[in-house]
Write a structure and sequence with these properties.
about 240 residues, alpha+beta, ten-stranded antiparallel β-sheet, about 35% strand, globular
Length: about 240
């Protein structure tokens, strides 16, 4: 089986059988190099057999910063990714690096399957996402069981704030949110789909005064860092039938 690109360039976020999600970030420098890297990835993968080692999908998004690429891959289990690294990854990366020299691979994080998700059915117009907002929240106590509890409580507080928003300021342009917990115990990642970058910026601007629910989210004393980045879906590959 060869790799097949999905026409909407987005993964099936709720496909069955996903037991692990890998998220990595590359820096390539310029918008031109972003486009070249996406095409190099497409070529490297479509010219080879799909690695039948539990990889369900592999998606690439381009940062609106004109520099970064985000890689989001779905696996049956963590071990499937480790098997892929030992057997298949190096020759693909070598081809990509030859086409776009100087790629910096900044970070790789392991996550479980989606912990909680939300769909803004009442406010979405049914559009495909024009932008994916990646929200990362880092917590103290990475690797400890108490850290996992902190993260789950924080996600619950986000959902409480979203429920309040549904009444006081309904979201326009938000499509969905998928919350993942990192395997190392230290991070929550929200893969949030929006109809456009402007819709997300407008939502951020409409936060004064902040509700008490959102203040509890943003000022949780267990938070030690975080960031928000926006990406455009560029490529999503899965095994052909």
């Amino acid at each position: 089986m060869n790799a097949v690109a999905r026409p909407d360039a987005r993964p099936d976020l709720h496909r069955p059988g996903v037991g692990a999600v890998l998220v990595s970030t590359w820096s390539v420098g310029t918008p031109e190099r972003q486009r070249a890297a996406v095409e190099a990835i497409r070529t490297a993968w479509e010219s080879r057999e799909w690695p039948d080692l539990g990889l369900l999908s592999y998606s690439v998004l381009t940062g609106t910063d004109g520099d970064t690429l985000l890689h989001y891959s779905q696996w049956t289990e963590q071990k499937a990714y480790d098997d892929f690294v030992r057997t298949y990854r190096d020759d693909r990366n070598a081809e990509i690096d030859a086409a776009v020299p100087g790629v910096e691979r900044l970070e790789l994080r392991r996550y479980g399957a989606i912990h909680r998700s939300t769909v803004h059915a009442a406010t979405s117009t049914g559009e495909l996402p024009g932008v994916v907002v990646i929200v990362e929240a880092d917590f103290e106590g990475a690797g400890a069981a108490v850290g996992a509890g902190h993260r789950e409580e924080w996600v619950d507080s986000v959902f409480a704030a979203l429920d309040e928003d549904a009444v006081t300021r309904p979201t326009t342009g938000g499509i969905s949110g998928q919350f993942h917990l990192s395997v190392d115990g230290g991070r929550v990642l929200n893969y949030a789909e929006w109809e456009s970058e402007q819709a997300h910026l407008d939502w951020l601007a409409d936060d004064a005064p902040l509700s008490e629910a959102w203040k509890r989210v943003r000022h949780d004393p267990r938070l030690v860092g975080g960031r928000v980045r926006r990406y455009t879906p560029a490529l999503s590959l899965s095994a052909g039938v």
